[in-house]
Amino acid sequence: MPKVLIPFLFFTFLFFHAQIIGQSSIGGGLKNNLGEPFEGAHISLEPGNFTTISDKEGRFEIINLDPGEYVLVISYLGAKSHSVNVDLKERDVFLDIILKDDVLALQSVVVTGTFEPRNILTSGTAITSLGPIELSQIFPRGTADLLQALPGTYTDPSAGEVFTKTYSRGISASAEDDMGWYYISLQEDGLPVSLVQHSYYGPDIFHRIDLYTERVEALRGGSASITALNAPGGIYNFISKGPSDILYGEFRLQGGLQGDNNPLFRIDGTIGGPLEKNWFFNVGGHYRLDQGARNTDFTYSKGGQIRFNVLKKHQKGFVKFYGKLLDDFTNRYTGVAATHWNKPSAAFGQDFNNTALLMPAFSANVPDGRRLPQGATNHFDPSQGVHAQDKAFGLDIFQNLGEDWTVRFNLKYSHKNANWQTAISNAFVSLNDPLAYFITGAQFPIGEVVFKDAALGTELARLDNSGILTGEPFQYLGTRTLPYDAIMGTASWLKQNRSDEWMNQLTIRKSSEKHDLTFGLGAGLSNTSLFTQGSFGFVTYEPNPRMLRVTLENPGQPVIALSDSNGLSNYGGLFFDNARADVTQVAFFANDRWKLNDRLHLDIGWRYETIDHKGSKDRAAPFLRDGGYDGDPTTEYDNGILMPTGERDDFDFMYNYLSYSTALNYGVNDQTSFFTRFSSGNKAPELNYYFNNFSGVPINRKGEVQKIKQVELGSKYHSDRFSAMTTVFWSQLKNVGITDFQFDAEQGSVFYAPVQFNDSRTFGIEWESAYKPLSYLTFNFNATLQHAKATKWTVYESAGSLGTEDDTIQDYSGNTLAFNPNVMFNLGIDYSKDKWSGIFKWQFMGSREGNIANAFQLPPYSIFNAGCGFKFSQNLSVNLVVTNLFNSEGLANFFGPNSFGASANDATVDFIQSNPDASFVVVPVLPRGTLLSMNYKF
Length: 938
Description:
Elements (H helix, E strand, L loop, with lengths): L4 H18 L1 E8 L10 E5 L3 E4 L5 E7 L2 E9 L2 E10 L3 E7 L10 E2 L7 E2 L7 E4 L1 H5 L6 H5 L5 E4 L8 E4 L15 E5 L2 E2 L20 E8 L3 H4 L6 E7 L7 E11 L3 E15 L2 E12 L10 E14 L2 E14 L5 E4 L5 E2 L17 E4 L9 E4 L4 E18 L2 E26 L4 H4 L9 E6 L5 E6 L10 E2 L9 E26 L3 E23 L10 E5 L7 E2 L6 E2 L5 E21 L4 E23 L19 E26 L4 E12 L4 H5 L13 E13 L3 E17 L2 E4 L4 E4 L3 E19 L2 E16 L1 E4 L10 E4 L11 E11 L2 E10 L2 E2 L7 E2 L2 E11 L4 E8 L7 E7 L11 H6 L5 E5 L4 E9 L1
Parallel strand pairs: 1-7, 13-16
Antiparallel strand pairs: 1-4, 2-3, 2-5, 5-6, 8-9, 10-15, 11-12, 13-14, 15-16, 17-18, 17-56, 18-19, 19-20, 20-21, 21-26, 22-23, 22-55, 24-25, 26-27, 27-31, 28-29, 28-33, 29-30, 31-32, 32-35, 32-36, 33-34, 36-37, 37-38, 38-39, 39-40, 40-41, 41-44, 42-43, 44-45, 45-48, 46-47, 48-49, 49-52, 50-51, ...
């Protein structure tokens, strides 16, 4: 070796040796109160923005650290946060740490409804967190079903995974069945799932829960007015897995039975960890095949999603790229017939637990009213339900600018499609009712009518309806009859919805000794369109409906087809909506958390929001030609197809408003705090205002901005064994636009009644608590007591026709607000010791008014859930969950009298007194489901 290299190698060795010596590590072992390893805890180290999670042995390690002083923070939802100062002088530091229980997660840091991360105890809001343990105990029936466990939150998941309804604290008046998330921002990682809503197009269509979700943060009212786009009622934020310095993964295989032993199969998975130095990844998702909770002749739900994120850390922040690919089919349940107004029971051979009353599967091609000259058609198959597709990609950047300044920018683009192919309505239509024949669009469908099974071709019944126009009953010809002498009043419901959306939030934060100031910009752009087409369907009225092929076979005359071979009639004549819109939302916000002294903080914030709705809606009229669309006079089912006239009604309206919220939070000590908050929020109209109203007339006025005022007074307390949060609230809504779905029997068309603007008020109290008398046993209880009043409320009665000469307006001011229970509570027991675990939960829903007339009450009901688990090892476990253990037949919703086009408000006191034996339509809760899960972690 040349002598000249010896000094070089010597100094090189000293240099690298010094580097090795200079690089140290901090590690440790985590245990819970029982002395068991604590897996999955989040460990962060500052300065330097280092993070990791504990492994299955409870161990963690952060390496390649320079000597110096650090702050190590350990957090886990359900455990008290642990902070320790570490003076790193030696090569390595190892810490043994025991994490104490935080049974209500009041010390957990939340990021929802606040402009900076803050623990729940000092947040000045009523917010609840659900962590991995709570998420693992659910039966996977959708987003709304999970949220039933939260205080102050009313959910109606009786329709299934989608078409659900969620609201809080009586802020509910516009949360109709087809727009059930009207006041709520459903979010993923801090940005809305969808910017716009309209009929049959809500955020729950594009949201699924699986192992990729780490926790849920639920904010009711309050600061949502200033922290969310156009969503003063609350924020429900589903937060994804974060970065980890170790490779981890979890897979879950599930199989079970629902209702009448209908199978469900599902697989979930997630995996994450480091890619290389300061690079991290997470990917997860699920696939499911579900025959549904009620009986149908098709697969009720199938498909899944994949979500991912890739994060690059640097010394002063991070850059994260994330995305979601959702592609699945699901459906929604409609109502079931009942009788006995005071004590509802299922009617017409139906069953509250198992009857779906949906069209069976078939394949049809219906002329597309938008493109009749081109011969275009729309495929329709009720087994498809709603085909939901969402392709979303985003970029999240956080940067520490120094001098206590930080900036964060979150940007997301998504392309969404929701293609509905299902049935709407399932009402009883007597064969004595002329509607049963004239709804076909035929000119004179009187005489000998033949009903055949559309799938088998066999004749089911033949009748003579010649006397129905003079009030005489129909007469069967022969011995064959239709069930209950009726057909189902139903229609094919084809909706094609599309949206392209950009949304972002820029937040700049400056912290100092006395102030924590945040200001920024939130914005969203949505280009959306919809097309709706409806055709009448001839269907038997029975628990397992069959499609009917119907003909008019008068002697000596040509056979007239009143339906096509699949049973569809009045092609495209019941509904036609073709519209498009551009929605621009921009919001400027600012908030200051002012430290008045060591225990008292003042939060004061405002938000100025501007929303622009610009779009158009086609006018439509029936296609008129001798012989109908196909030119054949013997086919009467294609004589009234609605098509564009060429005229469009444009709209271009802007809404501007200022919202504000202020709160005081007083920390008595490290265990107890009190807060009070006043919020003044606004809710701009959603697109249904233009799409559902102004039928064939100019859109000459913009909608009203709803005014929402809320007052809260709350307390929070936690100790090692007991924690509780109590909130007294008062909510007021003004300028609530209400319209009802109506049917004109003479014209055979569907329309919405003129909008009415109403007010409501709700006051109540929320209670959330957890008690852990033993290290392995926890009792949970949350409850809501409230009273919701319609302070000003009118309903437009159209008397069953488009004509206005006999219309009236009914005044129900002072009545109880519909669908808001006075009492809701959840009581649960959790057991976990050694290798065994178990849960038992009781959900109680109090009685609710079924309509604003307060003429019908939905009775109270209870649902019990139970489960148990066994852990074979740290890696492998098995769990059994049973939902609705005792198969409760509780009623979640009410659709009014059992007639085509009826609404809940048609069931007035006078109607019920005059029709004590009439049937009506209710929506029961979902029946029992049993699910066995096998989990593997590494």
